[in-house]
Structure formats: structure tokens, C-alpha cells
Amino acid sequence: MIRSGKWRGLVVPVALVVIAEIAARSTEITSDTLAAPSAIIVAGIKAMGDGTILAATGQTLATALGGLGLGLGIGLVFGILLGIFPIADRLMEFSVEAFRPIPSVALLPIAMLVFGFGYRMEISIVAFGTMWPILILTRSAVAGIEPRLLEVSRVLGLGLFARVTKIVLPAALPRIFVAFRLAAGVALIVAVTVEIAANPLGLGYAIMSAQQSLDPALMFALLVWIGLIGWGLNMLLVWAQSRLFGRAAIVEAAQ
Amino acid sequence: MTAVEIRSRAPVSAPSTTPLIAFERVDLVLGGRKILEGIDLTIGQGEFVCVVGPSGCGKTTMLRLIAGLFQPTAGRVSYQGKPIARPRQDIAIVFQDYGKALLPWRTVSGNVALALEAMGVPKSQHGDRISGLLAKVGLAKHADKYPNQLSGGMQQRLQIARCLAQEPAVLLMDEPFGALDAMTRQGLQDEVLDIVAQTGATVFFVTHDLEEAIYLGDRVIGLLPNPGRVAESFPVDLARPRDQLATREEHEFLRLRRVLFDFIKAAEA
């Protein structure tokens, strides 16, 4: 029943596309800002065929995933430290709250001075943007671990490293994975934003080029493609989450 | 004998008098409140001591002092004559809330393995040790299940198996059977008595079930609340091995039951 009802979700988007197509054909005005859906599809297939979209996708994904990996590493280490040691948490509380609200794109000028254009600059900004959700959620996941489990690890005489790997990480993992999903979405947004704002790389830059060469069809084709990538990435992570942690974790994530 | 190495000791009818654990004028203040005051108590090697008292009398707090989870504000808690500064691997705790004390992401075997990993037992020996321990607590057929697939009694057996993996000289049990139904509780009481008879472990057993305290103990300690202090010590002069029917019908059992009942009633008043 649920499966057969899924097509209903497609009614609105398909109707909108059809309306847009009819509107574009009936007016027959060539626009610098809009394009007919059919033209967008044609432009998308052409750019896909000549490899430009795939190359740009590779660049954007490489920086997004590179930055996500770095942000994950930093966020995990600090999140676990702050979650385990209340003293560290109190020491760092102000600093975290002061730095966290800085929009990652605002670091663009500094990152450009330090790294110049290219991958390293973009990766550093993505890392900054993704480490906060991971740090904050890991910290609360670790701080929220069943106290009895930590007591068991104390009574058994587990050292800090064993306590983290055998008790803390496995207990917090479902919630850390939720943080990772959130951060993955942030990574793609920040990467494309940096490319649109400054960096001559990837899908963001491809959109800017299409805009500047007055090619709205290609511009929209790239937009649709970025949407598909974001959707695909999230589906992949949701699938991985349900495989790794079962249904309970998904329900928890939805709350 | 099972493959599990256990500290062998001939079963004795009466506890030896060598003090293993000693409380000396122990006070404990937590959050500005005096929880324990002037506790003096010695527990002999191999002794089974049960502690009863109204809620808020510091039973569990005394247990946590022996575990090294709390430090006394004044006085001294010692093990083999030395102060207990931190948890020791040869002092194991069985918590009441078995559901929270087990790792839900590890199987039955994996939960027992945690203790072996903590003890630094080589991986090659884990298989034999784990199957020996699980056989001892009657969980051999459930090695690959997860804790949430087990009944409450089985989960508590698993926690006991994990504690036994520590080869403890002292077992601290904090109302371990309080959440179980009567039949399961009696079964586990006898299993614990068997294990203690085999290993010669010293046991500090907190309970609010007076009959359980008499049935299991060599001695029952009665505490008074606000602040918690030792009021009385009741020696249990009942033959071992004990029997769920015969022991509970003995005159001495019934006499102690009345004495303890009167004590608790007076303590709560």
C-alpha cells in the first residue's frame, strides 16, 4: 500500500515541469534567466556527454568529502574530549560558542590569503563548517551515555583508550552517525558556495560560468544535478544508517 | 571442574576470621549531606555478609566505598590492610539494573569478553574461558544472542558471568535480584551460593529482602538511616548448603526473620 502510494509525491513536480514547458513554448521568448525544461534536459545531456559535468562533480565531491573527513576527525576528537571531561567542556564552552556562529563562508578571505585558490582553501572551509555539528552532537552523545556503563568500565579498570573504543564510541555511534549525515549536507552546501563565491573549481564555478555566458539552460541543468547529488548522498547515508544501526536509529534521528 | 580457572578453596562451614575488608570510623559526606557516620565493620575472608536497612541508610554507598567508586570523607576503608584508592579488578560488582550494566551492542559472549579484555587475557584463551563461564551460569546455548533478546533473569546471569570473568576475590552485589520474579530469584540465590562455595569469594550483598539476607548470609548487618550507621550485626547460624524449603522452615530462620523484621520496623519508625 505504502509503496504503491509513492507516485503521489511526484504529481506536483511533474505538473510544475509540464506547466513550465507549456509556458515556455507558448510565449516563445528567449530569456537570459529562464529556460524551458526540455532545453534544460538537452543542455544537461550535452554537458554530461562532453564530460564537463562529471569533471566538475569530481572536483566538488573531492573537496566536500575531503573537508568532511577533516571536519569529522577534528569534531570527533574534540567532541569526545569535551563529552568525557566536564572540566574541558567548561574551559572550552565560551570558545566553542564564540567561534561556532561564524559562517564558514566568512572565512573565505582568510583561507584565500593562506592557501590561495584551489582545493586546500575549499577543503579548509568545508572542514570548518562541518566540524561544528559533529563536535556539538558528539559532545552531547558522549555526555549522554548511560552512566552505569561508564561505571562498569571503571570497575573493570579499563584505561582511557579502551574506555573510548570499547564503551564510549559504540554507545554514542548511532547519534554520531546522525551528526555525520547532517555534516555531509553542510559539506556539499559549503563546497558549492565557496565555488560560486570565489574558487574556480567544481559545480559552483560551472554554474557561474554558465550564468556569465548567458546559458540559463546549462545553469539550471547544473542546479538540478546538484540537487540530485545531495539527494543521492543523503539516501546513501540513510541506507548505511539503517544497515548499521537498524530502525531504532532512524526513528531517533527523526526526532 | 570447568575449563575456567577458579580460586580453589575447600568449602568451609564457618567463615575464617582473617579480616579482608575493614571500615574504620568511616564518614562520608556527599553534596553537603552526611550519608554515612562512624562506620566500623570488618568482613572476614570468605564471609558472606548481607546488609539490610530502610531506604536511605547508605547500603549502596557502603558497597561503592568497597568498590573504590567513593572515597571516605573521614576514616579508612581498607582491603587486605591497604586503603582502597580506586576500583580493583579482583573486586567485582553485580548491579541491580542489569539492563543498563550490559553492553547492548555486544553479544552474550562479547559482554563476557569485555572483562577478559580488561584483564589482559590473551585472545586465544577467550573462547574456552567464555564457554566455561557461560556454562557455569546456564547461558551456554545463548552465547550469540544480544542482551535485549534475554529475559531479566538471564541478563542478570550474564552480568554475574562477566563478574566471574574477573576471577574476583570479592563480589559486591547491589540488590541484584530485586527486579526479578520470586521463582527466578530463588534459582539465582542458589546459583550464587554454589558459585561462592566453589570460588570461596567474599560477598557483600545489599538487599531489602530480609528472608533473602538470612537465606544467603553468614551474617546480616542492620543499618540505620540519617545518617547511615551500623546498628546491629546478626550472625546467621544455619547449616550449609542451604535449601529453599528446609532452611526456610528451620526454627533459627524463622527466629531471625522476626528479629530482623522488628529491627526494620523500629528503624523505619
What's the SSE blueprint?
The complex is a heterodimer of chains A (255) and B (269).
Chain A: H1 11-27, H2 37-49, H3 52-84, H4 86-99, H5 108-115, H6 119-143, H7 147-155, H8 160-197, H9 202-212, H10 216-254
Helix pairs in contact in A: 2-10, 3-4, 3-6, 3-8, 3-9, 5-6, 6-8, 8-9, 8-10, 9-10
Chain B: E1 19-30, E2 33-44, E3 48-52, H1 59-67, E4 74-79, E5 82-83, E6 91-94, H2 98-101, H3 108-119, H4 123-136, H5 152-165, E7 170-174, H6 182-199, E8 202-206, H7 210-216, E9 219-224, E10 229-235, H8 246-249, H9 251-268
Parallel strand pairs in B: 3-8, 3-9, 6-7, 7-8
Antiparallel strand pairs in B: 1-2, 1-4, 4-5, 9-10
Helix pairs in contact in B: 3-4, 3-5, 4-5, 7-9
Q: How would you characterize the overall build of this protein?
A:
The complex is a heterodimer of chains A (255) and B (269). Chain A has 255 residues and is an all-alpha fold. Chain A has one domain (35-254): MetI-like fold (Orthogonal Bundle), CATH 1.10.3720. Chain A is built from 10 helices and no strands. The longest helix of chain A has 39 residues, at 216-254. In chain A, 35% of the residues are buried. Chain B has helices at residues 59-67, 98-101, 108-119, 123-136, 152-165, 182-199, 210-216, 246-249, 251-268; strands at residues 19-30, 33-44, 48-52, 74-79, 82-83, 91-94, 170-174, 202-206, 219-224, 229-235. Chain B is globular, with a radius of gyration of 18 Å. Chain B starts with 18 loop residues before the first strand and ends with a helix. Chain A binds chain B through residues 146, 148-149, 151-158, 162, 166-167, 170-171, and chain B through 67, 69, 87-89, 91-93, 95, 97, 100-101, 103, 105, 114-115, 117-118, 166.
